Amino acid sequence: MIGTIYNIQRFSIHDGPGIRTTIFFKGCNLRCLWCHNPESISFRKEVEIYQERCIGCGSCIRICSQDAHYIDETGTHHINRSTCDGCLKCADNCFAEALVAVGTGVSVENLMKSILTELPYYENSGGGVTFSGGECMAQVDFLREVLRVCKEQRIHTAVDTAGNVPWVSFEKIIDYTDLFLYDLKAADSTVHKRLTGSGNALIVDNLRRLCAAGKQVFVRIPYISGSNDAELVGMIHIMEGMAIDRVEIMPYHRLGESKYKSLDIGNDIKLFALPTEQEIQNAIGIIRAHGINAVKS
Question: Is the pTM of this model over 0.70?
């Protein structure tokens, strides 16, 4: 069984308890307007291009069987995304590292070999492995197998998800997952659809089911000033009565801006205001006032 991932982040300390390895799955079924990992959106393997590194050697043009690469009269390197088949040979042969491969197929066995190299850190810190994305649950059968083997090795597991999948997908992994990091982006379904491309009825229902099943759940709220900040009280009302261990407020940032350019993807990331520290602390205070533990992530 092969899954598609785009990054393995070691020594992570923000995606669950202890020192962790975070595995980023490629592909997402939401289109959040503020997404700072655009390379995670497509399920296809892709190539990022960084113009400032390109030396115009033409290696990519010669090796590409789809004629997807060309350099215009100004010396600017372009990729025809409609013809690129994601073979990644161009990136593999770009010694200037102007072309960067995004996405790789990996087997359960090989991914576990990588995970197990960090086993001493998990054991000494109370850490483990977190599966993120993109949306890792969009590859739920592969995810299930990796989670199952992790549990055989007594490794703590966390799944970071937006929850926009059928409940049957949760049923496949629930017994092998110790912690769910669960995104909540808006309370009103119409607002949620405007911001992410999808309503939130399924997401809210899955959150209720997870909490009712007795699973440990950390809710994560990306906080975007002038966008979903007005949804905060509504999200609190959704969570009231649920057995949620804590809420993590995640301040919006623009660190992914250059990635959009490298993938030739348009974006509205500059349209959103960066929240102030006072806004974040106020949000945390409002949540705590409703008897729910909240922290800044």
Answer: yes
